[in-house]
């Protein structure tokens, strides 16, 4: 039986999603809890996307195969009873063999939350990014428009990225300002390693006047990571949704899980 899961997590305590030898990743911890519910059998999850250390998820989607027959509620409440408070399974659904959490997805959505204030916030530490000065949001929106569409995003790709192609279709890059909090909403068919954090870092350079829209166009055309600003901090980054064909009958995965992040 194949089971699909919707998962949310606070990434601060973990070394990212992907399993590691030390075992302190979201995937490792989730696999162990699922294995206990499955009768102490080994369980291996496959996720829609890998998130880095310190990155959060309001809606990650994963699947696993099991021979254990359990009510769906056991894969939610039962597993949650074995998970640390920073990880929660939100829903579970039976899925056909043709469903694959990664390869069946046609889009991924992320949001980045950036606090602009002279003083960092201790209450929001690890939950939002921070910059100490006000930013020119109008200039950032103008530069963001240059990035929309299908492009080679090599200038925003981490050196250790394992994606077969740097060409991605960026379908959405909205920038919303609410007081001292700026939210970047992005959606693409897929993202390169560190791509969102690198895009936010470049847009921050625009916002502080170190680059303009023409510079962003030139940076994109350069297809050279060494020409771009540094990778921005992971703190404010959230995986907020994964798009799947309606035929799979999954809960709406295209928006932020139970939390309406603002």
From TrEMBL:
CDD domains: PseudoU_synth_EcTruA. It is an enzyme of class 5 (isomerase). This is tRNA pseudouridine synthase A. Formation of pseudouridine at positions 38, 39 and 40 in the anticodon stem and loop of transfer RNAs. It comes from the Bacteria. Belongs to the tRNA pseudouridine synthase TruA family. It catalyses: uridine(38/39/40) in tRNA = pseudouridine(38/39/40) in tRNA. Residues 8-103, 143-245 form the Pseudouridine synthase I TruA alpha/beta domain. InterPro entries: PsdUridine_synth_cat_dom_sf, PsdUridine_synth_TruA, PsdUridine_synth_TruA_a/b_dom, PsdUridine_synth_TruA_C, TruA/RsuA/RluB/E/F_N. Keywords: Isomerase, tRNA processing. Its EC number is 5.4.99.12. It comes from Chromobacterium paludis. One of its GO terms (molecular function) is RNA binding. HAMAP family: TruA. SUPFAM superfamilies: Pseudouridine synthase. The active site is at residue 52.
